[in-house]
Specification:
Blueprint: H1 4-9, H2 19-36, H3 43-53, E1 62-63, E2 67-69, E3 75-77, E4 82-83, E5 87-90, E6 95-97, E7 102-103, E8 108-110, E9 112-113, H4 118-122, E10 127-128, E11 131-133, E12 138-139, E13 144-145, E14 150-151, E15 156-157, E16 162-163, E17 171-174, E18 179-183
Parallel strand pairs: 1-4, 2-5, 3-6, 4-7, 5-8, 6-11, 7-12, 8-13, 11-14, 12-15, 13-16, 15-17
Antiparallel strand pairs: 9-10, 17-18
Helix pairs in contact: 2-3
Length: 188
């Protein structure tokens, strides 16, 4: 029989009040507090906390505190990824972020969601849908990336956008809901 944690990672309905998940979130909250209390001149301490908080991160992860996430260990992060101030990643299931991706301030990344049926929702169960963000993506400030979305390589998401569906590679997309505005052209 699957644990609640395995159900959560498999995008199935699960109980978020399961003792193991509560303990995992508490551990994460304590690490986030440590991270958010570090100063710019405490690079070694910040790097130590980040290795523990987001163990699946490539080299060069740069976060401007404050930063918030649910678990941290469900984030799979490439090299030289940058999160500006006040970003939130609800990594109830996997969030894959390609190398050299940039997040503006206040970006929100949500894998967590809830049942549509009010009776299921009232029971307290929830589920999640994984998010994939490609390499060399730039997500503008205050954008929201909704559960289950994939954003292709080299794409730019305009500030304030709400990404509710997949966005292909090599485009500029913006709006609420976010839609492709135009393709991006390579310099020749």
């Amino acid at each position: 029989m699957k644990t609640e944690k395995q159900k959560m990672l498999d995008a199935e309905l699960y109980d978020p009040l399961d003792p193991q998940l509560v303990a995992d979130r508490l551990r994460t909250r304590l690490l986030i507090k440590e991270l958010n209390d570090t100063r710019e001149d405490q690079a070694e301490e910040r790097a130590r906390v980040l290795r523990e908080l987001i163990p699946n991160a490539g080299p060069g992860l740069w976060l401007q505190p404050p930063f918030y996430c649910d678990y941290g260990f469900n984030m799979i992060v490439g090299e030289r990824v940058f999160f500006n101030f006040n970003c939130v990643v609800l990594d109830v299931t996997y969030v894959k972020i390609g190398s050299r991706t940039l997040f503006g301030p206040n970006v929100q990344v949500y894998t967590a969601t809830h049942p549509i049926d009010h009776r299921e929702r009232a029971s307290g169960v929830e589920y999640a849908k994984p998010i994939t963000i490609g390499e060399d993506v730039w997500v503008g400030g205050s954008a929201v990336i909704c559960p289950g979305v994939t954003i292709g390589d080299r794409t730019i998401i305009g500030a304030g956008s709400v990404v509710t569906r997949d966005i292909p590679a090599d485009v500029f997309a913006a709006g609420n809901p976010c839609r492709v505005i135009r393709p991006l052209k390579e310099k020749e």
